[in-house]
Amino acid sequence: MLADPRPILLANARIVDPSRDLDDAGDVLIADGVIRDARRGIRASGVPEGTETIDCRGRIVAPGLVDMRAFVGEPGAEHRETLASASLAAAAGGVTTIVCQPETTPVIDDPAIVDFVLRRARDTAIVHVHPMAALTKGLGGQEMAEIGLLRASGALAFTDGARSVTNAQVMRRVLAYARDFDALELRRLLDWPAEMPLALTDDPLAALPGGALAMPSPATPRAGPANLQFPA
Questions:
Q1: Smallest Cα–Cα separation from 139: which of 170, 168, 165, 172?
Q2: Tens of pLDDT along 60-96?
């Protein structure tokens, strides 16, 4: 909610609104914290008395952006970042919704942790916050997380983040449960052990200076088709 009750006119802006297939110069009128109108010529046709006008020439006014892969420090690394500070940074960049990755301490693999994130976000964040939960317990890739309970507690989707679930039996079970609970599953398609350091190159010599192994180019293509072979 805006602290100033006066209407605000964002004048001479470039308005981008995908819902109306709109990308044009115009004005945006805001009153009581709500966008009342967005089109060309609002200023010329008259605005409510006391309206504050902000010249937005050279700037874009668009719906809030969504960050689908936010690595927030809370819980576990609040010295680095909290949900409050992450939301402030997001809002400053035009992001109005952030989706937290489960790679926290502890890992978001328990309904109680999902509930904690949602409550902290409600109390401290100034943008919408939705947590993703882990596909596997502890992001270990060996034991499926409680997808049904996590979804019921408010998890938006499920992922092991930067790690790949290389155990085909576990992945098959995950997909079956995701289907049954209508859950969204996002996974990095990389057929490579998570604990093995790698470099994104086919050239072993290029990887040597960093002490990592070269990731073979078939690693990703092999993981995708393998998952698609699981029956629905």
A1: 165
A2: 999 999 999 999 999 999 999 999 999 999 999 999 9
